[in-house]
Amino acid sequence: MPIETRIHGAGGTVSQTAVDLGAEVVAVPVRSGPAAPAAEVAASLPFTLDELLALHQAKGEPGEIVATQVRVGDRVRELLLYGVGEATPADLRRAGAALARRGKGRTALVAGVPDGDLAAFVEGALLASYAYRIGAAPPKKALGTLAVLTESGPESDAPAIELGTARARATALARDLANTPSREKDPSWLAAQAERVAGESGLTVRVRGEKELVDEGFGGLVAVGGGSARPPRLIELSYDPGDAGGPSPRHVVLVGKGITFDSGGLSLKPNEGMKAMKTDMAGGGVVIAVMSALRSLGVRARVTGLVAAAENMPSGSAMRPGDVIAHYGGTTSEVLNTDAEGRLVLADALAYADARLDPDALVDVATLTGAAKVALGLKHAALFASDDALAEELTRAGAAAGEPVWRLPLVEDYRAAIDSDVADINNIGRGGYGGGSITAALFLREFVGERPWAHLDIAGPGRSASEEAEITRGATGYGARLLLDWLTA
After folding, report:
1. What's an example GO BP annotation here (predicted)?
2. Known binder of ligand: residue 341?
């Protein structure tokens, strides 16, 4: 669902802009301390802003809001003193989100914004305005218009607003794809969405159906999708920057897990474990969303996005524990647990990328293991990488984008956990080693050759049960901003 809030720059004063727009709400920033601003909009108040902040024991923390009423023009409007902390990108992202939530049900809000990362402020405001709903509209609609005023002026602000809007809309697309119920969202539906995005974003697309997957040896996808009446797909999106990329642009391949519903297969999950499994293709949704924004952001690398899409269901045709799968390229894996299916489909896509696409860097993103969630909680993704420079680039991008990662080791001593008596490797890791997210990453490493490769396990931050800052309930779109920041760096 598209974000309905619109953000634009404005000139002049907060008061005059509020009158021109008919805005019901005006807002001025408060830095840590708190440090009350010199705000012309507060001239008619019978007290000072310092007195108001002291009354509410405000601290100017990002996301904090103190409200009062003020006469602007011929009407009374709400005045918000909103905390921006030290005005770091993270502070401004949180502050923008707080304003957008406070503005729900209003047609317009005018905000002064301090110097800093205006794109982060825009991202926070737009992503906090996101909602996915089927049925009746919510009691309060999202804020209609947010007009921002900075010292730089609207012309200087326009690029930052465009950047923040592009990243927010890509993240919202990732959320939409993951939040769509699985009754509607099967692999063919996901492929159709990718085709739509390709047409709108200047990409080329190829979708492999079941027969092509069998004929070309994508054994992991075929096996995982074999239990469903709705067959698997391999989605391939390609972006070419043309002359903007230079004579030989760097080639990056992004791979996303696209399990459109995960019942666990014959190793059936309990009911509680299935409730959020419509979002088990969140990694694939992130890849499609990132691809959608590359041309508008002027990314200079050549980028290929692969989404390995399948539905993991139990039936008479489902893969069984003990089965052996031949993946793309010939590596075989023994299935010890059909609920460790994500790595089976990713393995095919990674092996294909290594053998056929010749990337300079290979990055996969997946809601892969509960172990990563146990280790790092709900805020950080687990990062595994075969290349230190790539790991550092992604770590910096995550910090800048507000999507932090924590690098975990590829422990060589744990490699024995994925040995198999009958195949090259097994898919779940034998007992005695622990480190479930590590053994899953070691499994994936078997399929990437010698290329620089990174694996982002987003099982923790990929979905949320509550609202906080720019995060909304359900799918978070985690990874879209990180990867876009990395690709545009």
Report:
1. proteolysis
2. yes
